[in-house]
Amino acid sequence: MARLQILELPEVFVGAASETPFVLVIDQWEPPPYPGEDGPHPYEGIAEKIGARAVLVFEETVEIPANDTTAYLESVAGCGATGPNFASPIAGRVEVRQPCPYCGDRQMIPRSQFTEHMARVHPEEDSPGA
Ligand SMILES: [Zn+2]
Question: 127: which of 36, 86, 109, 110 lies 20 to 30 Å off by Cα?
Answer without folding.
Answer: 86
